[in-house]
Amino acid sequence: MSIRRLRTLIAVAETGTFSGAAEAMFVSQSAVSMQMRALEDDLRMELFDRTRRPPAPNAACRAVVERARAVVAAYDALASADDTAGDSLAGELDIGAVPTTLTGLVPKVVSSLRADHPALRIRIVSALSADLLSQVSRRMLGAAIISEPIYMPPRLGWHPFASEPLVLEVSSEISSDDPEALLKSQPFIRFNRQAWVGRLIDDWLQRRRIEVREVMELDTLEAVSTMVSYGLGVSIVPLRCAASSFTPPVRQIALGTGAVPRNLGLIVSETWANRPVIDLFVDRLRSIVRAEAIVPVVEPIAT
């Protein structure tokens, strides 16, 4: 009996179909079917009702899945142990992070952890929040730093660590502190609407009934701030909880009441074995956010 077959069985149970498991495990549907046949031979029992299309897990399968989770978790814990390092927080962690955290928060957290725990190996994967949520849900990643999701898939835990208010970024050459007047009069540089924070920004503009004159839509906050600093437009962005050393000089104006902040947190697979590493990661995230000095933001003029 192989760990791979047990992982595939768990994927079938969580996705509900062989095709869903094939996508989650990056194999063909026929490979999933062959693995499940082989697992049934190993266990000498039928795990699926094949009179249904697609085949559905039966009662025996559901019981085996719970035991398989425990076996896989124990295997992962054993595989991540590092007996030679003498560090109880040794092992590997594949963690996702939204791009807006990669030039400030993430390098500070990872460098801090590596200094304290050299036997801990951390691999970073960058993607937007929706993609990272899917990867953690399918156990392709142990955890990910994302914007707070509207819907929480089963077997995932949410650990918030920062709330970032939305602000208007303008060139240092602009003296006005009226965000709505500036949005209506200046070209607008939009942050990627495919990102969840991009949707927050779009929702705020629609609620305020502000029609902007869009000239760009960019994928990184550094690119947005660079364009703003050259006087090419204004933009709405989250005020990052950990400053980036690459941000050009710009002025930031609060949007006032009604602007929903971007809430950041760590989404975690509850089946991931090395929980002490996750707990340490969350604690380090929160300590760095507390220690950061947020750049002062100009309050909007009274209207």
Which helices and strands occur, and which strands form pairs?
Elements: H1 3-15, H2 18-25, H3 29-43, E1 48-49, E2 56-57, H4 59-80, E3 91-97, H5 105-116, E4 120-126, H6 129-137, E5 143-147, E6 156-164, E7 166-170, H7 179-185, E8 187-191, H8 196-207, E9 213-218, H9 221-229, E10 235-238, E11 251-254, E12 262-269, H10 275-291
Parallel strand pairs: 3-4, 3-5, 8-9
Antiparallel strand pairs: 1-2, 5-12, 6-12, 7-10, 7-11
Architecture overview:
With 303 residues, this protein is an alpha/beta fold. It folds into three domains: 3-80, Winged helix-like DNA-binding domain superfamily/Winged helix DNA-binding domain (Arc Repressor Mutant, subunit A), CATH 1.10.10.10; 91-162 and 262-291, 3-Layer(aba) Sandwich (D-Maltodextrin-Binding Protein, domain 2); 166-254, D-Maltodextrin-Binding Protein, domain 2 (3-Layer(aba) Sandwich), CATH 3.40.190. The protein contains ten helices and twelve strands. The protein has a five-stranded mixed β-sheet, sandwiched between helices. Helix 1 (3-15) packs across helix 2 and helix 5 (105-116) crosses helix 10. The longest helix has 22 residues, at 59-80. It starts with a helix and ends in a 12-residue tail after the last helix. Residues 82-86 have low confidence and may be disordered.
